[in-house]
Amino acid sequence: MMFARRLKILRAEKDITQAEFANIIGVAQQTVGSWEKGKSTPSYELLNKIADYFNVSADYLLGRESHNVSLSDEQKNLLTDFNSLTTEARKAVCIMINSLRITHSAAV
Fold first, then answer.
1. Could you write out the three-class secondary structure of the chain?
2. 0.90 exceeded by pTM
3. Which tens digit of pLDDT belongs to each residue from 67-79?
4. Cβ neighbours of residue 68 under 8 Å, at least 6 residues apart?
5. Distance of CA 73 to the CA centre of its chain
6. Which residue has the higher pLDDT, 10 or 101?
């Protein structure tokens, strides 16, 4: 399930749909959907292609390592708070963040 979760997050960070991502790596959209639901996993070759596209390691995708990112204490606290929220509350936070991002981009 780690692969499914990380793939979905990475794809969302790049703001691309399952169909767009599927086209980029040469598979059907249903295949990406199946991976993100944890129903199947990609071949070794596709795993490497996915890792290259997102500029992460295959080990990261498989949950064997974390991102090599140093977080500040404030970021760690925010992440801890976010992880303690319900699924619905997390969705609300993501909506607020996207709204702020759009507002900030428009103001620049």
1. CHHHHHHHHHHHHCCCCHHHHHHHHCCCHHHHHHHHCCCCCCCHHHHHHHHHHHCCCHHHHCCCCCCCCCCCHHHHHHHHHHHCCCHHHHHHHHHHHHHHHHHHHHHC
2. no
3. 555 567 888 788 8
4. none
5. 22
6. 10
- Report the half-sphere exposure of 65 (CA within 13 A, side-chain side): 9
Torsion of the alpha carbons at 82, 87, 88 and 94, rounded to the nearest 10: 50
Count CB atoms within 10 A of the CB of residue 81. 10
Cα torsion 15, 17, 23, 24 to 10°: value is 20
Sign of CA dihedral 67, 20, 45, 63: positive
Task: State residue 24 phi and psi, 5-degree precision.
Answer: -65, -40
